[in-house]
Amino acid sequence: EIYCDNAATTALDPEVLNAMIPYLTNQYGNPSSSHALGQKAREAVEESRHTVASLLNASPNDIFFTSGATEANNIALSGAIRTYDVSHAVTSRLEHKAVLQTLGQYSQEGELDVSFVKIDSKGNIDFEYLENLLKFNAQSIVSLMHVNNEIGNLIDLKALSALVKYYDGILHSDTTQSIGKYRIDLQELDIDYLVGSSHKFHGPKGVGFIYINKYKKVKPLIYGGAQERGTRGGTENVAGIVGLAKALEVSYRDLEKNHNHISYLKSFFIELLTNGPIKNIRFNGESFSEDKSSYSIVNVAFPHLKHGGSLLDKLAQLEIYVSGGSACSNLTQSGSHVLKNLKVHLDRDNVRFSFSRHNTPQEIRHVVKVLNQIYQEDEGIAKSKLL
Ligand code: PLP
């Protein structure tokens, strides 16, 4: 069994599990209770908030825990739109559905105009086009992701924030795929809303966070108690929050080491694949590039198997776990909106490989060997059919 689907989710780190266990067992207090058991839970939540804030060079007051990045994106966008009466949004067709559907809903209700930035066939954003949009639409909300979850494209957040701020815009970035992998310094970056999801960096599922710049506010999305300072009612997921903070701490503790290890795996994979027997391999987006894409994601456009059948199914049968697009697009059966919008390589078997610190060079070698075997066997079958 080889798991190369780390953009969908990651394995829980044992150190993270250990940190969570007390809060799943004897430390079961409600952080809002005033007795000692409750206060122990409160301390754990606030300590976790400090950890997350210090790793991102933010203030604990700017960090709000949520159920994940989908909710955090919803809070950021809906919150900003409703708080500041924003009437224009700028985004890209390659964003995650949590962003596209949220903006789409406001647009359908007639409350928001949404402009899409121009992108090239590799998914790069046309910054000049973006600047023009901002020039003619003052105080827009701009939502552009740091790392694309399907093709791995990486954007320069610093350049983006400088541009958006020059035109007085509000900036939200879905950083779900980059938190824990790239150092993000919120003192340096002028960004209003940023999100993270613990299960993408070896933490538990169902917990995430939103950073809200101290100069910005949001109306809550979930009304209820005064938890998360009124921004998100509901009893805190204490064990999840502790796990998220520990997972982020572990990820940033070994950031350089992990970065080097995973980038090596990616380039080793590309090298073995492009020098192997499978002909006509292409790459989706900027997957192939070292500086324009994340070091952990590569999206490959393989030629269809002549003998039919899907490459993804064949890999799954051989216990190599990868993905065609995002895990969420599997649910809708409509295929990847990201690849559709790039309009290239749609007539191919597109496979996303996403690596983590748990993968090894031996695994990469094995994955490529299996891919080569599948194509060689397919070629053999196709030839024998011709005879
Ligand atoms: N945004 C991006 C870019 C993602 O990759 C994901 C992952 O599924 C999400 C948002 C949603 O995160 P969550 O599973 O925490 O809701």
From TrEMBL:
<protein>
    <recommendedName>
        <fullName>cysteine desulfurase</fullName>
        <ecNumber>2.8.1.7</ecNumber>
    </recommendedName>
</protein>
<keyword id="KW-0808">Transferase</keyword>
<dbReference type="InterPro" id="IPR020578">
    <property type="entry name" value="Aminotrans_V_PyrdxlP_BS"/>
</dbReference>
<dbReference type="InterPro" id="IPR016454">
    <property type="entry name" value="Cysteine_dSase"/>
</dbReference>
<keyword id="KW-0411">Iron-sulfur</keyword>
<keyword id="KW-0479">Metal-binding</keyword>
<dbReference type="InterPro" id="IPR015424">
    <property type="entry name" value="PyrdxlP-dep_Trfase"/>
</dbReference>
<keyword id="KW-0663">Pyridoxal phosphate</keyword>
<dbReference type="InterPro" id="IPR000192">
    <property type="entry name" value="Aminotrans_V_dom"/>
</dbReference>
<dbReference type="InterPro" id="IPR015421">
    <property type="entry name" value="PyrdxlP-dep_Trfase_major"/>
</dbReference>
<dbReference type="Pfam" id="PF00266">
    <property type="entry name" value="Aminotran_5"/>
</dbReference>
<dbReference type="InterPro" id="IPR015422">
    <property type="entry name" value="PyrdxlP-dep_Trfase_small"/>
</dbReference>
<keyword id="KW-0408">Iron</keyword>
<feature type="domain" description="Aminotransferase class V">
    <location>
        <begin position="2"/>
        <end position="365"/>
    </location>
</feature>
<comment type="similarity">
    <text>Belongs to the class-V pyridoxal-phosphate-dependent aminotransferase family. NifS/IscS subfamily.</text>
</comment>
